[in-house]
Design goal:
The protein has 338 residues and is of the alpha/beta class. The chain contains twelve helices and nine strands. Helix 6 packs parallel to helix 8 (215-233) and helix 8 packs parallel to helix 10 (265-282).
């Protein structure tokens, strides 16, 4: 009989994090799960660490796959997806870990047969400090929930609609936008049960200028899959959902700008202008989104709502350049994540 949960974990040169990740799963009070790990040609002792853990815990349902060639994290996730058998699938990174009651809490919401269950999670830095809690708003919406941490998905929807990870960025937003086209029922869990490891040291926070995860490259990629869904899928009886996905698009726009922390101010302003041009071409009325109004109830968490609304305000009042200058200096000492 297939388990309720498939916990899938990508591995690449993270041997030092594997014990924490696997021990957290071992401590789960809910046991109806399988664990599938896939190593993507690690050059450290990741495979040895995982193999020993499997030998030491024969009562756990764990499978280790090893790629013959490097597939990258997205290709590895697809291999994990293809090998999973649970009703629900969870996508994990090997440096993240669950609270001890994580699966028990999630299992408590499966009785109504939801397509996705979304819980709260913490951002925890390399010093063990909780940087922020990614709490859910009072009135959340599926289109705004673009990350996979602390969440499980009905696996059959991936199978029925041939949904797979691709080199579209942010890749978790991409997979969620596709999944949510066919996802009718979502349960939101206002409880924090998962830990996302974030690198907040200055070296990790300074991106490479050609990274697909920042600036206009990120926004161009997001535009390629969000805009068609906004304009072609969310029509007719689904038109009321368009504002939610558009808000996610605006959030990615802001992320594209604020992901440039650590780069020279000249680069920041240049990329901002490119991003603004993309928005004016792809979604010229984006500043009219109803959730940008202070009187509306935002489906985003408070921190993201504040950043997005402030950015819109500075654009409307033509104060965006001094605002970005202030961000440029503040980001040198403060961690930003939308």
């Amino acid at each position: 009989m297939a388990p309720l949960f498939s916990i899938t974990i990508t591995c690449y040169n993270y041997a030092r994090f594997m014990p924490r990740c696997l021990e957290a799963i071992r401590r789960q009070s809910f046991k109806d799960y399988e664990v599938i790990l896939c190593d993507d040609c690690s050059t450290d002792d990741t495979v040895e660490v995982v193999t020993k853990f499997i030998e030491d815990n024969p009562d756990m349902n764990i499978t280790l796959l090893v790629n013959e060639e490097n597939l990258g994290v997205l290709g590895t996730r697809n291999r994990l997806l293809n090998n999973a058998s649970g009703k629900y699938i969870m996508f994990c990174d090997s440096d993240d870990w669950m609270d001890d009651n994580c699966l028990e809490v999630l299992a408590g919401y499966t009785a109504d047969d939801p397509d996705r269950i979304i819980a709260q999670f913490r951002d925890v830095d390399q010093d063990g400090k909780i940087v922020q809690i990614q709490d859910l708003p009072q009135e959340p919406n599926k289109w705004i929930c673009g990350v996979h941490h602390g969440s499980v998905y009905k696996r059959q929807i991936f199978i029925d609609h041939d949904i797979r990870f691709e080199k579209k960025y942010p890749d978790d937003v991409y997979i969620n936008v596709l999944f949510h086209k066919y996802c009718d029922k979502v349960c939101f869990v206002h409880e924090t049960i998962f830990n996302w490891y974030v690198h907040t040291d200055s070296q990790s926070r300074t991106p490479k200028a050609d990274s697909p995860w920042i600036g206009s490259s990120l926004l161009e990629s997001a535009s390629s899959y969000i805009v068609p869904v906004m304009n072609e899928f969310l029509t007719g009886d689904k038109a009321s959902e368009r504002d939610y996905l558009e808000l996610m698009y605006i959030k990615i726009y802001c992320l594209s700008i604020y992901s440039l922390q650590g780069l020279p101010f000249k680069v920041l302003m240049s990329e901002y202008k490119k991003c603004r041009a993309i928005m004016e071409e792809k979604d010229p009325e984006y500043l009219s989104n109803r959730f940008l109004k202070r009187s509306s109830v935002s489906p985003m968490r408070k921190y993201a709502t504040r950043i997005v609304r402030m950015t819109a305000f500075f654009e409307r009042t033509h104060l965006i350049k001094p605002a970005l200058l202030g961000y440029f200096f503040t980001s040198k000492i403060h961690y930003f994540d939308l």
